[in-house]
Amino acid sequence: MNRLERYKILMTNVTALLAGRPENSFHSLKQKSVFFLIAISLFVFFMSWGLLRTFYLQAHESYIRSSFIELLRSIDDDFENVDKSIDWTKKTLNVNLHKFEDVEELIVEVPTYINKEKFLSLNERKKINQGDYVVKKFKVTDFGVNLTSFFYPVMKNGVLECLLFIYLPVNNATKESLVFSLVVVIIGMIAALLIFMIAKKSFGKSYNQLQEIKLAATEVSKGNFDAKIWEKSDDELGEISDIINVMSVSLKNNQERMKEFMEDISHEIKTPLTYIKTYNQALMDGMIQEPEEQQKSFRLIDRETNRLQKLIQNFLDFTKLDAEAVELNKQPIVFAQAIEEIMMKYEPIFHRQHIQFEMSLDYDVIIDGDEERLEQIIQNIVQNAIRYSKENPHIEMKLEKQGKKCILSISDNGIGISKEHIDIITNRFVRVNKVRSRKESGTGIGLSIVEKLMTLHGGKMEIESELGVGTTFKLIFPCID
After folding, report:
1. Which of 83, 143, 294, 314 is most buried (most C-beta within 10 Å)?
2. Does the structure show a pLDDT above 50 at 438?
């Protein structure tokens, strides 16, 4: 399974995830959002109503408490006219204000259906006799009435002169409290509505963006890599949108490179097969009779067979390396000696093509490597140097040690590589010189193989190049001390 197919499967899974589960409608993100918005709006409404009402009742109770205590103090200050003050209070304020000689007289007057201990405990009676007022709330269970009572002692020379007693039923809501409750409800509804509208706008935008991501993911999973997500945001969904857009471009480029690669490899396979078939048929039909010409034909068939074998081997190597299925057989190697043995095979080619070759090697360099794969690395780069050479070709190879690393530099004076192509030249299926003629063989996977093999050796490859001047490949390996 190649990377393009893995991407398609991934996008199919993403699409299914974004689509939700059809068998359970409540898994829909839209329904979850609506449910959440309604729940939080109701929560805000009741919370607002409860808090405002609580604060109002506390403020109202505190106001009543302080007002009546101040009234009783005023009556205490004008004790000479206490009876007139009581009458005026009853008529004007419409409250139940009574005067008793002492606490015991008040207790006697308490109706039998009221628990006298709950009405006024012994500690509270003692407190009153000492001159402290008492404010108390209690419930008359038989009648379901809630009372707030004020017990105010009037003292003279440290002795209780009389006891002023006021009680207020708090069951029935006043006109003001009803108006306030209505205001609280309206404020709560407005707050809940505002929260709902703000959240709906926010969730709505995210939901629309998710739908666009879903559609784009569906198109990409079908192979339409032109699909884009235009809805943008600064949150995680925006990051996902950017990633999918970049992935779409990458997949499209990969698809185009794959297409070019297949065209190239088809041509590369077709060319040697044509030579082999043509000359073999000519030999079989007896069209070539001269022994010298027959030997020439055999050599050509052998050359094209080797070429075809190498092409197939490269493709198999690339496939294995891409799947990380290659294991190296590493052992300590005198790198300079291995390089010399590899380059001896190229002496006839250098002589035939009039290529000037120079080599400067440090024989103290020892690396831990796979000899067969090291040959593959060097061959790929040297063959590139030969393939893209120009007039008066020159190739130079230099091995030197730098600290715990060694650098093998392979330089040529060929056509060079542009700066914008250096960063992508090792990408899969990339062949930089796309305008070259078909006689320049190559599939664009050679340098990809080199880079992957360098990584397996714990090293790396660096490229320096200038158009029309030449290219230098630096192979950096870790050394054995």
Report:
1. 314
2. no
CA distance 75 to 17: 78
Residue 383, C-beta contacts closer than 8 angstroms, at least 6 positions apart: 446
Tokens of 255: 């698809």
Report the run of H or E that residue 347 belongs to, with start and end: helix 347-352
Mean pLDDT of 202-212: 72
| Averaged pLDDT for residues 250-272 | 75
SS3 state at 173: coil
Give the burial class of 427: count Cβ atoms within 10 A of its Cβ; 0-12 exposed, 13-18 middle, 19 or more buried: middle
Question: Are 237 and 210 a contacting pair, CB within 8 Å?
Answer: yes
Q: How buried is residue 234: exposed, middle or buried, by Cβ count under 10 Å (0-12/13-18/19+)?
A: exposed
Does residue 330 register a pLDDT over 70? yes
Name the one residue in this structure whose structure tokens are 């070709």: 393
CB atoms within 10 A of CB 298: 14
Dump pLDDT digits (tens) for 218-252: 887 777 877 777 766 666 777 787 888 888 888 88
Query: 444: closest CA among 432, 435, 456?
Result: 432
Mean pLDDT of 329-358: 92
Compute the distance between CA of residue 52 and CA of residue 91 in angstroms, rounded to an integer. 33
CA geometry: angle 464, 467, 471, nearest 5 deg: 35
**pLDDT of 21 higher than 50:** no
Q: What is the pLDDT of residues 385-425, one digit of tens each?
A: 988 888 889 999 999 999 999 999 999 998 888 887 787 77
pLDDT above 60 for 429: no
Contact 343, 397 (CB under 8 A): yes
How many Cβ atoms from other residues are within 10 Å of residue 194's Cβ? Answer: 12
Q: What is the DSSP letter of 104?
A: H
Sign of dihedral through CA atoms 367, 373, 375, 378? negative
Amino acid at site 345: K
- 390 is written with which tokens? 């120009």
Specify whether the CB–CB gap between 86 and 76 falls below 8 A: no
- Phi and psi at residue 145, in whole multiples of 5°? -110, 135
Work out the widest C-alpha separation in the chain, in whole angstroms: 155
Residue 3 predicted with pLDDT over 80: no
Which amino acid appears at position 371 of this protein? E
pLDDT at 13: 55
Provide the token pair at 355. 């290529």
Question: Which of the four pLDDT bands, split at 50, 70 and 90, describes residue 23?
Answer: very low
Average pLDDT across the chain, whole number: 78
151 phi and psi, to 5 degrees? -110, 110
456: tokens are 């397996």
Helix pair 291-322, 236-284: axis angle to 10 deg:
160
